[in-house]
Amino acid sequence: MAFYAVARGFEAGVYGTWAECERQVKGYSKARFKKFSTRQEALDFIQQFGPDSNSVSSGKSISIATKRKFSTNETTTSSKKPSTSNMVMDSSSLRKMNERKDIPVVYTDGACSNNGRGGALAGFGVFWGDNHEDNVSKPITGKATNNRAEYSAVICALKQALSRGHTELIICTDSKLLINSVTKWIKGWQRNGWKTAKGEPVLNQDLLEEMNELLSRIKVEFQHVAGHAGIYGNEMADKLAREGAQQYSGS
Fold first, then answer.
1. Cα–Cα distance, 166 to 237 (Å, whole number)
2. Residue 50 and residue 48: Cα distance in Å, rounded?
3. Where is this region: Disordered (predicted)?
4. What is the pLDDT of residue 51?
5. Alpha helices in the chain (DSSP H)
6. What are the φ/ψ torsions at residue 242 (nearest 5 degrees)?
7. Which of 2, 213, 224, 245 is an S-S bond match for 123, by CB 3.0 to 4.6 Å?
8. Residues 179 and 53: beta-carbon distance below 8 Å
9. Could you tell me the strand order of the sheet in which 105-113 lies?
10. Which residues, other chains included, contact 117 with Cβ-Cβ below 8 Å and sequence gap of 6+?
11. Are strands 121-127 and 105-113 parallel, antiparallel or unpaired?
12. Secondary structure class of 245 (helix, strand, coil)
């Protein structure tokens, strides 16, 4: 069996076929990928050459979801779990989080099939832990896009944390795009009347403003994790998001 490691591409991760791998690297500037005979070698390659898995901390921060493709014939039963035999945890991230057991940790993710095309389906997942009562798998409302699914997952997790009286939260995500949006770019967009540097309207302003308001009420630390790399919490949030997307009924 072959394992295709994509260290730098549209979505870093380990893929089982060349077709899946090609979709992530074709047209991506300075893509880095390689074929291996074992999954562990592929994961090691991603760890060595992929984006850093690091923590971004801020007194006012936010979390995200991810862009995932899924098959419409997958089960929609939330109680079922994916196989964990090949899942790994990022040791440095876990060590850092385990030292702070008083702060809750949540994984968020979003999924959208046929993103940007007709027939798109989008949903989000929020994973607090195995059999946790606050785990969420839902379709999004409005237009089905990856980013709206990601933002919806974050908003849901933040509302849950606030309703339980949490003052701090660690959100684990594999999307650096949203982290940058809410920790680096949002203030500039606000000053510029919600226009980009090119003068174009910022997409999804409604959700960004809602997240920004929620973030003013809780201290959030981002933990960036590699996507498609078998990290348990990330994989579970992804499964919930894909199940939620299958329930999407349109805007």
1. 21
2. 6
3. 70-93
4. 56
5. 18-25, 39-49, 91-98, 146-163, 176-180, 186-191, 205-215, 232-245
6. -65, -40
7. 245
8. no
9. 55-57, 219-224, 168-173, 105-113, 121-127, 136-139
10. none
11. antiparallel
12. helix
Please report, rounded to a whole number, the percentage of residues in the chain having pLDDT higher than 90.
40
Residue 117, token pair as written in the block: 């095309």
Which of 34-43, 116-125, 130-139, 231-240 is predicted most confidently? 130-139
In tens, the pLDDT along 43-98 reads 777 767 765 433 333 333 333 333 333 332 222 333 334 333 333 334 455 445 54
Q: Which single residue is written with the structure tokens 């702070």?
A: 100
Torsion angle defined by CA atoms of residues 124, 214, 98 and 102, in that order, rounded to the nearest 10 degrees: -130
Taking the CA atoms of 90, 102, 150 and 132 in sequence, report the sign of the dihedral they define. positive
SS3 145: coil
Bridge partners for 108 per DSSP? 126
The pLDDT tens digits for 135-170 are 999 999 999 998 999 999 999 999 999 999 999 999
